[in-house]
Amino acid sequence: MQNALPLLSSALAALTLSGCATTNQPTPLPNGRNVALGQAAFADGPIIQPVAVLEDSRCPVGTLCVWAGRVRVKMLWLRPTGEKKPFEVTLGERSQIADGSLLLESVLPAKRADSVIAPADYRFSMRFDGGF
């Protein structure tokens, strides 16, 4: 029994210290609403992170356009294994991911003819449909 005490103490210390481990990743937002570039969020299942606006050719507010334009965003799917799988979404279109699809529902702020949107000002709302 005395030989087991040091072993038990070592195991207890290891378990206690393992709870102190931290990661550099902040906790994801609880849902896919109002997500900024660089923020991770639970999108009704998978954890998604928008990382770059690839295109924002939306028609500016108060302007008459022949084409409404589109927004394309580079995203990362943050897998439970730690893998970061890149993919692209387009506003209003479904993108296959995991066992379902992700819909980029909205992009804010609205585009204006007299100003440029700074990357830090973008906010995205997305929804995942699928799963078991």
Put the structure in a nutshell.
The protein has 132 residues and is mainly β. Helix content is 11%, strand content 36%.
Average pLDDT for all residues:
85
Q: Note the gap between the termini.
A: 49 Å
Query: Biggest sheet, in brief?
Result: 4 strands, antiparallel
Q: What is the molecular shape?
A: globular
Q: Helical region count?
A: 1
Number of strands: 7
Structure description:
With 132 residues, the protein is mainly beta. 11% of the residues lie in helices and 36% in strands. The chain has a 4-stranded antiparallel sheet with strand order 1-2-3-4, with no helix packed on it. The protein is globular and about 45 Å long. The model is unreliable at 4-22 (pLDDT under 50).
Jot down its keywords:
132 residues; mainly beta; 36% strand; four-stranded antiparallel β-sheet
SSE layout:
Layout: H1 4-18, E1 41-42, E2 47-56, E3 71-78, E4 84-90, E5 94-97, E6 100-108, E7 123-130
Antiparallel strand pairs: 1-2, 2-3, 3-4, 5-6, 6-7
